Amino acid sequence: MPKIRIEHLWLWLPLFAILLRGMLFPLPMLDFWWHLKMGEVIVTTGSIPRTDLFSFTAAGKPFIVQNWLADVLYYLVYRAGGLPLLVLLHALLLVAVMLPVYSLCRESTNKLRLSVLVTVIVSLTFFGNPRPQVFSFVFFSLFYWVLEGYRHQRRDFLWILPILMLLWVNLHGAFVVGLGLIALYLCSEALRHLLDPSALGVLSLRQLQKLLLVLGVNILATLVNPETYKVYDYIRVVTSDPASQRFVIEWQPPRIDTVAGVFVFYGLFFITMLALFYSDLRPGVTDLALFLGFSIFAMWAVRNVTWFSIIAAPLLVRSLVRLPFDRIEMRLKRFRPIDLVMGSLHKAERAPAPVHYRFNAMLVCLALLFLVRFSPWVRSEVYRVSLLAPETPIGAITFLEQNKLEGNIFHPQIFGDYLIWRLWPRQRSFFDGRVHLFGESFVCEYQSIFYDTHWAELLKRHKIRFLLLSKDPRDEGSFRFVDNVRSSADWITLYEDSISVLFAKKDEPVKASRLPISD
User: Which of 32, 72, 175, 362 could form a disulfide with 169 if both were Cys (CB 3.0 to 4.6 A apart)?
Assistant: First the structure.
């Protein structure tokens, strides 16, 4: 029997936590399914579309598929192992995000449990929905690991960054964040060199020149993509899109008055800030630039919070390990439970733990069984748990597919991506996750249909023949709109279940092989 110590269990805890979390994430409604369909189109046609293919409201408009490589990878994985393999891929990508961060935390202290605790907490704040953006988190985490190693002169792997950038620029548009990270290190370390070139740990002029050269090569590497230099204009259009910033939650600042906002960003932000303030280890120029720069970046939009989480983890560990617990105890007497918890982390590192090899081996076996139990194959095949988000209109889409119904469909935006995956090219979406493609005026018109008393006239403009509506009370517009349609004499119910309801225009013939369904 292998001699598994308690330290081994602690060492593997972050991997277990993030792997389990990744496998439990359902495939989301927005910003996944259209990528999967785009991957299929690229693989089967051997070309990347230049105009919109998937909607009838923006058909033919110029559309740049910047993350074409991620779409292709998703489709190839799906073709090899179906939806379960896609879920596993997502879990492994989250692990790939966590490992460089975990390594930096371990390098920041010899206190294993402290680095493990911070890594687990921070990894739980990662933006975890399966989508191409996760690839960006992987590469950003690797960039951070390489640059931190170079700054502290532990390793010199700068040569790998341009290679990573060649992939990153074709996987997701956040490659510009990688360029920004290199530039931030270069400027901060150059400032340190100017202030005191002889100080311990300051990069030499030759090392700074090498970092500048790497930044230039990375910029050149970003041009190796189907759009070449025009990819930057695409990034500008997407990040400045008024419709996205106005209507999409993830493009809006994180809110401090919500549980999600406090847990995902503000909690980690204030804890890290207090740790930096109270720590005996004074943060350097680069540490302050990283913390302040990515704090502001995260406060700009929810989608940027993961960048801050990745940056904050090693900073937090380095600060916590140098906290003056004797002085903090005097200042925080009213909050002694906090002090006891933090103190126990340090005392636990010094006290030798009793060795129970068999019990530790049993815990490892239980953990492995737990991962198998919640693996996508066992969940879907044995326990019949869907890998899709609970609000996915599987039944209605299947009804449309089996009866080969044709005609324009009006639906909530959240249904659009899945409709593309299942029904394109027979059916096209009214509105889907590609908000910047449709424009602000269209989004306003889309929202008005749910509440305008003249909704019938608005639908007539788009020659709508079917209505596929959500019955989820959280989707307030669609939920209320269902009652309006039921009270109209112009629409009949074709299909209904607990998730959605499908209506058809009454004055147009509809050939369906099944009667209306209701549960």
Answer: 175
